[in-house]
Amino acid sequence: MVKYVVLLFAAGAVFSPLFLIGIRRYTGQKAKRALGANIASFFACLILASAAGIGGTASAADVTAAAAAAGAGAGLAEGLKYVGAALAVGLSGIGGGIAVASSASAALGAISENDKAFGKALIFVGLAEGVALYGLIVALLLLFV
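== ATP synthase F(0) sector subunit c ==
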């Protein structure tokens, strides 16, 4: 029963920004509220899933206590490795998106005034996208090395 409640809460967390954006369209409020609600519902769902024990653990039946403790430490290290990879990709993607948004708009403004600025503008937009690629490379190094 708890798993279904968490699943329902997670589905609500996914669709809450769409609901708030729809309300924003009629009321004229900013989208910061939708982003804040999405972040809050994500962390609430994460805490609820952790408290309910949905993740679970896998263990062998004939393992000694010392081997089980070592396995728990290895499981924690493995889990933190995945969390680090997710943070590297996610945060670098957000940072790259913000950088591309500002540099691309400035590049379009510069190109509209001077056609010769296209090459320089394209380089700056490409450098901004490189931030996301560096995050992906760091995540791959974390996962496979």
